[in-house]
UniProtKB/TrEMBL annotation:
<dbReference type="GO" id="GO:0030286">
    <property type="term" value="C:dynein complex"/>
</dbReference>
<dbReference type="GO" id="GO:0045505">
    <property type="term" value="F:dynein intermediate chain binding"/>
</dbReference>
<dbReference type="Pfam" id="PF03028">
    <property type="entry name" value="Dynein_heavy"/>
</dbReference>
<dbReference type="InterPro" id="IPR027417">
    <property type="entry name" value="P-loop_NTPase"/>
</dbReference>
<feature type="domain" description="Dynein heavy chain region D6 P-loop">
    <location>
        <begin position="116"/>
        <end position="160"/>
    </location>
</feature>
<dbReference type="InterPro" id="IPR026983">
    <property type="entry name" value="DHC"/>
</dbReference>
<protein>
    <recommendedName>
        <fullName>Dynein heavy chain region D6 P-loop domain-containing protein</fullName>
    </recommendedName>
</protein>
<dbReference type="GO" id="GO:0008569">
    <property type="term" value="F:minus-end-directed microtubule motor activity"/>
</dbReference>
<dbReference type="GO" id="GO:0051959">
    <property type="term" value="F:dynein light intermediate chain binding"/>
</dbReference>
<dbReference type="GO" id="GO:0007018">
    <property type="term" value="P:microtubule-based movement"/>
</dbReference>
<dbReference type="InterPro" id="IPR004273">
    <property type="entry name" value="Dynein_heavy_D6_P-loop"/>
</dbReference>
Length: 160
C-alpha cells in the first residue's frame, strides 16, 4: 500500500482495489486503478472524504466508469454509501416502484386473507403492528375480548 494512502486506506481495501483491476472497466488509458490512485492520491482522498461519495465526481482517470462500476468502488472504499447508491441505481434503471415501499394497508391485507390464509407478520426488531391490527379489528367488532382475535407473538426459535 502506498505511503500517500496509508492514512485513509486500509490494506484490505488496497487488496480489494487490486482485485478490481481484473475487471476491464478498471483499466483505463491512464493506467490501472491502483496506479491512478497513487498518481492522484489527493483527488482520491477528497472523494473518499465526501459526505455523499456516491454522487461526487470521481478523480480523473475514473470519471468514465459506468454507474454500475462505481458501485464496485463504493463497495470497497465507502461501503457506508453503498445502500444509497444501490437505491439510486435501481431507481435510475428500473424505476422508483422498485425501491419505494407502498404504505401498509391493513384493510386490503384483511380482504386478501381467508380462514385458511391467515395474516402472518414477519417483523424487524423494534416494530410492532399490534396497535394497527387491534384498531382495524375493532372496526369489525373483532376483539380478543369477544374471542374473535388471537395475537400470537413468537420469539426467535419458536417458529416450529
Amino acid at each position: 500500500i502506498p505511503e500517500s494512502t496509508r492514512a485513509w486506506l486500509s490494506e484490505m481495501q488496497w487488496a480489494q482495489l487490486k482485485s478490481l483491476e481484473q475487471i476491464p472497466a478498471f483499466k483505463s488509458s491512464t493506467g490501472a486503478l491502483t496506479q491512478n490512485l497513487e498518481q492522484d492520491s489527493l483527488g482520491w482522498k477528497r472523494w473518499f472524504a465526501e459526505e455523499r461519495a456516491e454522487a461526487a465526481d470521481l478523480p480523473r482517470g475514473c470519471r468514465e466508469l459506468s454507474t454500475f462500476h462505481r458501485l464496485f468502488l463504493l463497495r470497497v472504499l465507502r461501503p457506508d454509501r453503498l445502500g444509497a447508491a444501490l437505491t439510486q441505481f435501481v431507481t435510475d434503471h428500473m424505476g422508483s416502484d422498485f425501491v419505494e415501499q407502498p404504505p401498509f394497508d391493513m384493510a386490503q391485507t384483511y380482504e386478501e386473507s381467508t380462514f385458511v390464509t391467515p395474516i402472518f407478520f414477519v417483523l424487524f426488531p423494534g416494530t410492532d403492528p399490534t396497535p394497527v391490527i387491534e384498531a382495524f379489528a375493532r372496526t369489525l367488532n373483532i376483539t380478543e375480548a369477544n374471542g374473535r382475535l388471537s395475537n400470537i407473538s413468537m420469539g426467535q426459535g419458536q417458529e416450529q
